[in-house]
């Protein structure tokens, strides 16, 4: 939902970044306001995951120029956990498994770190369990997943639902979902998309990174951007995703070079 009076949450200006000395991001510009849902599409290898990891502060990515402003503050010097505590959430394309750590404990540690950073009350195991059980409904997840090790042996769809459950608990201001739709069957896709839609509100923003338009049948973006060779080369409304679906990414070459 576009609110013209809303604040800018994220402002990315001419961002460039290297991985292992190779330039991958070559000048990304993006402005995201409260209440907005943005989709970033693009071919495999265009730099979408790199962009999401640079936003989250992943240490393997070296920012070589430009800026990332979050509520007007430059966050480039902040560690990933500091960015997370400030409300930047990245759902990974390939969620990690953490054998030996129960999902409930993991979620509670993450939740309490955020509470502490905000000067809010931390919850003990019992109160936290009540809160999580309330949030399970967002992604129609069974409570049995709380006692299992984080993501260990979870199906692709269960892992993605678990990412959205984390998001429901942490209530980020900007959620970046990297290919959250990949590998999901249609039922899981509906559930995940439903969760994202429930969590989107006028004070937060969502960036959906996706290769396919089908996710956008369930989550309606305000803006669609196309990334190519480390830059956002085209932006439009949701009709741009339909055009990409119908014509593939080939039409870009003609339009971008025209
Ligand atoms: P996307 O998510 O759009 O598919 P990525 O951001 O994963 O694209 O990758 C962008 C480019 O960066 C690709 O060409 C990929 O091979 C390259 N790349 C990613 N990680 C590394 C790395 N660790 N070393 C060298 N190149 C990398
Ligand atoms: Mg990717």
**Approximate helicity band:** 25-40%
For the sheet with most strands, the description reads: 6 strands, mixed
Q: What is the residue-averaged pLDDT?
A: 93
Instruction: Give, in spatial order, the strands making up the sheet with the most strands.
Output: 6-9-10-3-11-12
Distance between the termini: 32 Å
Order of helices and strands: EEEHEEHEEHHHEHEHEEEHH
Radius of gyration (CA) equals 18 Å
Q: Which ligands appear in the coordinates?
A: adenosine-5'-diphosphate, magnesium ion
What can you tell me about this protein's structure?
The structure is a single chain. Strand 11 (223-228) and strand 12 (231-236) form a beta hairpin. The protein is globular. It is an alpha/beta fold and 258 residues long. The strands form three sheets. It has a six-stranded mixed sheet, with helices on both faces. A four-stranded antiparallel sheet has the order 2-1-4-5. A two-stranded antiparallel sheet has the order 7-8. It has nine helices and twelve strands. Helix 6 (156-170) runs parallel beside helix 7 (186-199). It has helices spanning 48-56, 80-85, 103-117, 125-136, 144-147, 156-170, 186-199, 238-247, 250-257, and strands at 8-19, 22-33, 37-41, 61-70, 73-74, 88-91, 98-102, 149-150, 174-178, 205-209, 223-228, 231-236. Magnesium ion (MG) is lined by residues 48-49, 93, 179.
């Amino acid at each position: 939902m576009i609110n013209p009076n809303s604040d800018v949450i994220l402002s990315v200006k001419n961002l460039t970044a290297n991985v292992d000395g190779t330039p991958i991001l070559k000048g990304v510009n993006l402005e995201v306001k409260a209440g907005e849902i943005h989709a970033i599409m693009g071919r495999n290898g265009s730099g979408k995951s790199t962009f999401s990891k640079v936003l989250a502060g992943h240490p393997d990515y070296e920012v070589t120029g430009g800026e990332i402003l979050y509520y007007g503050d430059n966050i480039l010097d902040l560690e990933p956990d500091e960015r997370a505590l400030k409300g930047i959430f990245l759902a990974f394309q390939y969620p990690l498994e953490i054998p030996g750590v129960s999902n409930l404990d993991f979620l509670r540690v993450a939740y309490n770190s955020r509470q502490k950073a905000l000067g809010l009350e931390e919850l003990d195991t019992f109160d936290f369990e009540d809160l999580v059980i309330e949030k399970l409904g967002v992604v129609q997840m069974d409570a049995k997943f709380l006692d299992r090790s984080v993501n260990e042996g979870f199906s692709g769809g269960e892992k993605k639902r678990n990412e959205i459950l984390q998001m429901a608990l942490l209530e980020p201001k900007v959620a970046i979902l990297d290919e959250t739709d990949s590998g999901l069957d249609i039922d899981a896709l509906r559930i995940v998309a439903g969760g994202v839609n429930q969590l989107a509100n006028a004070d937060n923003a969502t960036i959906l990174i996706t290769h396919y338009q089908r996710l956008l049948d369930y989550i309606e973006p305000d803006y669609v951007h196309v990334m190519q060779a480390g830059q956002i080369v085209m932006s439009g409304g949701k009709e741009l995703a339909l055009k990409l679906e119908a014509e593939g990414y080939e039409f870009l070459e003609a339009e971008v070079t025209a």
